[in-house]
Amino acid sequence: MRLMYCFVVFCVFGISASKYIQFQKDYEYWYKYNSNSTIHDLGNFRTVAEISFTTINVTEEVQEILLKVNSFFVVSEAHKEQGAGSAHLDFTNWFSFEIKLSGEILSVFHDTDEHHDVLIAKKGFASLFSSKLQNSNSEVASEWAYQTTEHGNEGHHNASYAVIKTATGIQFKKIRHSTPIPNAKGVHQKVLHFDHDLGTIKRVVVEEEFTSPQIAPDFDSEKGMRKVKAVNDFSTMENPTIKATNKGELQFWKKEKIKEKSYRPKDDIVIDSIHIGNYQRKEHNAQKLDKLKGTIKSNLICIRTEPEKGLYEHITIAITEMVVYL
Ligand SMILES: *[C@@H]1O[C@H](CO)[C@@H](O)[C@H](O)[C@H]1NC(C)=O
Ligand SMILES: *[C@@H]1O[C@H](CO)[C@@H](O)[C@H](O)[C@H]1NC(C)=O
Ligand SMILES: *[C@@H]1O[C@H](CO)[C@@H](O)[C@H](O)[C@H]1NC(C)=O
């Protein structure tokens, strides 16, 4: 009898659905994002963006959320002028995603012809919320912990969560167990702050460290590089490693009543996953590389004399992927 009772109680708490990511209908939630990234040998980069989330369709467990990017800048500390960002890229196309109240992202809807860099940035912003936020089995617990297996934009991975109740809400700290790139070393941690008054996540802090593998079976650091002997230290290394750190923060800013409802366009929209996919291997064609060069050239004057293709590509990957790892 007692066993039965325990079982029932456990089940009841066990299945009580968590509701941590929830945007009230008819409101647009604005957030500011800023991050500081350091890429070894290249310098410091600051990313600053203003983004908003609006629920456009809601069922019992899942909401479809429209993401808008109002501004997006990447600034190199060494060359203060604002570089790649909203001046070069068009962020106005449709992007929405389906997310469970517990943080799992199910699918993404975007324009068929969306620019690859824009898509990566938008997936990165959406995935800041990507998580598996679980309740405690006990209502009175002030701390709890659990393990998960996840399939986010950063690929299949295991993670641990440590959760504590705070004065204003609940803090979820997620640590992933493996790095997204085989043989790479790294630390990837994300802290999501749920706020009782706001009713959703108010702040997300991401911290990452990344060292690319020196030698890895499918990591060819020379790939696509010019067959010209380069002049300075950077390229005299046989297998350059990329060391990078990133600290990013998404902070709630304001909530506004919407003036007009948004509807997902019927045509020219693809259903996609939050997964970034084969970004590294996908586009080795000249046109793509030219575009990449154009986008980051102004920031990366220091490497202009360097081998062109491989390096540019790696750098862009490093910057964009750091935003989207967790
Ligand atoms: C809202 O979501 C439900 C469930 O996914 C779907 O059946 C319905 O068509 C959606 N409504 C709109 C307006 O997109
Ligand atoms: C996750 O953990 C399980 C059990 O420890 C293990 O079998 C699995 O390979 C891990 N998955 C990943 C992607 O690391
Ligand atoms: C990045 O650096 C700026 C300037 O030092 C600072 O104001 C900001 O809080 C930093 N952002 C993060 C996420 O650490």
From TrEMBL:
InterPro entries: Vitellinogen_b-sht_N. Keywords: Signal. It comes from the Eukaryota. Residues 1-18 form the signal peptide. One of its GO terms (molecular function) is lipid transporter activity. The keyword Signal applies. This is Uncharacterized protein.
